[in-house]
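Hello again,

I reread your note about wanting to compare the complex against the isolated chains. To keep things tidy I'm splitting this into two emails, and this first one only covers the full assembly. Below are the input lines as submitted, including protein chains and any nucleic acid or small-molecule components. They are followed by the predicted structure of everything together. The single-chain runs will come separately.
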Amino acid sequence: MSEVRALIVDDSSVMRKIVERALRQAGLDALVVHEAATGAEGLEVLKTKPVDLILSDINMPTMDGLEFLRQIRAQHLAEGVPVVMITTESSEEHVKQAIQAGARGYIRKPFTAEQVKERVLPLVQAA
Amino acid sequence: MLLNGVRAAAVAGRAGTRFRGGAEEREQTMAVSLRESVERVSDPRNLDASVEEVFRLMLAIECKREAGLAVADMESVTAVVGFGGVLSGACVFRSGAGTAIKIAARMTGMEFEDIDNTVKDGIGEICNMLAGAWKGKVPELAANCGLSVPAVITGRDYNLHVQAPEFQLHHGYRFGEEIFEVTIVCDGLQ
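Full-complex prediction:
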C-alpha cells in the first residue's frame, strides 16, 4: 500500500502511540503520522498538512472529538477524508452523534489491532 | 485525606458542569433514573469483567480478582476518573510504582526507570478505559454518565475517603507477581 498520512487526535500521548502501532500492525507500513492532543490542535494540523485518514478520541478537554468533527465540516477541511472515532464512549447515542457529525467508523476502547484493521483498512483502501 | 478530584468530579456532576461526553448528554440525564436499579449498577461482576477486558485487549494480560489483596503502603500511583450525570462518583485505580511501570511498558513497548509523565499518562488512560468499560455494562449509564479527564496522584501515605457513599466496590486483582486495586465509588445516583 502506498504512503498513508494519518492524523491521530487524542489527549493521551500513550494512546496516540498505541493507535499508531495498531495502524502499522494493520499493514499501513508506509505511515506518516501527525499528532494532536485536542480538537483545536487537530484543526491547526489540517490547515497546513494534507492527510488521508483521521482518527480521533471523543473525550478531550477544550474541544471534544464531536466538535472537532463538526468544525472539520464547517471549515471545509480534509474534505472526503475518512474519520474514525476511537473512544471509551460506547452508547448508541454516541455512535449516532458521531455518524451525524460525519464519522465513517467507530472503535470502542479497549480495542485490538485486529479491530483497527477491520474498520480502518477498508476506508483507506476505498479512499 | 480527601482526594479533591473525586469530590470535585462528583460535585461538578450534580451542578451540571460539562463532563467529557458532551453537553447534549447532560440534557438527557434528567429523564433517566437509576435509583431503583442500584443492585444492577453495583453488580460486582461488571467491574471484574471490565478489568479483565481492558487488561486482556490493551495489554494482552490475563488478570484475576483475588480476595484480600491490598497494595502495600509504599510509593504508589493512583488514577482517578470522575463520573457525572445520572451517577456521580469516581473510578480509582491504584498500584505500586513497579506495577504501574510494568503496565506502562506493556502499553507502549518502552522501558521506564521511574514514574515519569508517560507512565502517569498510561495509567490515567487505563483508568479511563476501566471507567468507560464499567459504565458501558449498564446501558442507562453508558448514555447518561460522563467521564472526567483522568487525574493521577503519586506518593505514599494517602487514603481515599468519600463520606457516606451510595455504594462502593473495592476489588484487588493479580497478574503474575503484580497486584493492583480498582475502586468504584458512587456518591450520588439519580
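For quick reference: The two ends of chain B are 27 Å apart (CA to CA).

B.
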